Task: structure prediction
Amino acid sequence: MEETISLREIFATLRKRLKLIVLITLVAVLVSAVATYFFMTPKYQASSQILVNQSSNQKQGLDMNQVQTNVKLINTYSVIVKSPKVLEQVIQDLDLDYTPSQLKSLLTVNSSQDSQVFNVAIEQQDPEQAAAIVNKVGEVFQAKIPQLLNVDNVNILSAAEVPDDPQPVSPKPMLNMAIAFVVGLMVSVGLAFLLEYMNTTIKTEEDIQEVLDTPVLGVVSRIGSQDLKQTQTLTQASQQSKRGEGFEA
Result:
């Protein structure tokens, strides 16, 4: 026999396990907050923009063919800027404790479609070091391009700067706690239904009919302590009334 669950039973299960659901959700949010504020190291981002344009020795005016060529070169430049030839020079100049492959994994290079500008960004625990690395990458890249491709069409459009009050880009406390809230809520609700499913005790007359396949002849109501007190009070009053009638007779 297939079991069906009504909306009333769903809400009844949620109400019954409400304390468990709230507790697990709050614990998940609290753990996320503690981990974010006390165990995760803040990281700061620095980025610079590099412009690929016509070389200064070409004629004045906008050459669309040259622009299209520069745009197509962006992909090539994005690879060169993260190449060992550039990064080894950056590490040497700044005396960094990185290998070229480690520094490459920290750098992010991206560009907009059909744009002559691409961005070089990095995340570091020290905002000043992040800005220094990005700016040095741009300088070394600009110096290496004429040697590698025999062109001079790279300029630093905007260098990375350290603001007076730098703000970390990670971790994000509110986002982490929101994710923990959703995950905790889902886990707690799932656990509530699992506990209810595993609870095989007989609760209603319908459960008896389904398990034993026999009709219910009678039901013994649950008597609470308040009901017992009322019954005792009525019994004592009845006994006192009978005693009074005996004295009158």
